[in-house]
Amino acid sequence: GWQIDNEFGGDGEKGLCYCQECAKNFRQWLQDKYKTLQKLNQEWGTVFWSQTYTEWEQIPLPRQLGTAHNPSLLLDYRRFISDSYISYQKLQIDILRKICPHKFITHNFMGLFNGIDYYKLAQPLDFIAWDNYPNLRFIGENKSPIKVSLSHDIMRGLKEKNFWIMEQQSGPTGWQCVDPNPYPGEIRLWTYQAIAHGAEGILYFRWRTSRFGTEQFWHGILDQCGTATRRYEEVKKIGQELKRIKDKLTGLEFPKEVAMLASYDEQWAFEIQPNNPKFNYQEHFTSYYQILNTLNIPVDVVSIQADILKYKLLIAPALFLINDELVANLKEFVKKGGTLIITFRSGIKNWNNIVFDEPLPAIRNCS
């Protein structure tokens, strides 16, 4: 099979770009979406601050300003960047489907990364994989077990099927600075945690640590010298254990009773206007997930387009943006006996990032 590219958007700043090519393509993307400037001006509310556009070329990329950009422009820009990666992936997939149609195609996602709408990116892939580094202290990221668990469940929910780990941390990581060695048993712990959440394939990164390039100190199972290490013995033990129990681990299924509704559009809208500088959508989402995880309740993390009628309980944290389709699905879910939990700051804006002119529109009738 094939892995398309590597960690889309992982080049810093969530993959955002402000070059002239992106400016041209962004304006074309807007033309395809809105058709006319009159429609765009109406949907964005550009009359405020005298931002009405009379030519497509007047629309800027949202570089940093002394003040703030229109929230609707900012949200559409995030959607455009996401769609750009999705189009680039499609270019590669189309080539491979034509040349070798019987080979699987996947991509290595990045867990909680939110620069791309992962639900859309996952659609044309046969299955998804992701890179699991629970401990990246050299960049100030030391993930709690809950965050790793949530990442696994998000990845499983992208296509509502089991997944692979394309890069599983197997040693100290780092470029300029280097993290400590994983504690004895940590690699084994991370491996079984992944399997428990639906991982059907796990590849450790890497087999032998490189002697050259940026990742000279991004350690693998073996150090540069190639001799057996404690990490090697641990991975060897894992292999022996999995060989004995592999038949019990194939095709694991999870109870379809509880789900959490996730949306990259919601995350982007809150990043644009968090309302409170301490509010973080992912942290708010995680706080509800953590309760379920602590109670050992399996949970699917699904998109707003998913079939939610198969669940008994649906938690939808902070649905800042809503549209008619989403509201209709939530009403149908409740009508058929489902229990719906919606949290604060829900139903505030429409899908173009414009505030409604009525209190709790539509969603107030969901319960």
From TrEMBL:
Q: Name one Pfam family in it.
A: Glyco_hydro_42
Protein's UniProt keywords contain Hydrolase: yes
| Catalysed reactions, as listed in the record | Hydrolysis of terminal non-reducing beta-D-galactose residues in beta-D-galactosides
InterPro entries, per database record: Beta_galactosidase_Trimer (IPR013738), Class_I_gatase-like (IPR029062), GH (IPR017853), Glyco_hydro_42 (IPR003476), Glyco_hydro_42_N (IPR013529)
Q: Where is the Beta-galactosidase trimerisation domain?
A: 257-361
Q: Could you give a GO molecular-function term held by this entry? A: metal ion binding
Task: Answer whether the UniProt record assigns the keyword Metal-binding to this protein.
Answer: yes
Q: Which residues form the Glycoside hydrolase family 42 N-terminal domain?
A: 1-245
Alphabetically ordered keywords of this record: Glycosidase, Hydrolase, Metal-binding, Zinc
Cellular component per GO, a single term: beta-galactosidase complex
Concerning CDD domains, the annotation shows: A4_beta-galactosidase_middle_domain
> What family, per the record?
Belongs to the glycosyl hydrolase 42 family.
E.C. no? 3.2.1.23
Signal peptide as annotated in the record: none
Name the record gives this protein: beta-galactosidase
Q: Give the record's GO biological process terms.
A: carbohydrate metabolic process
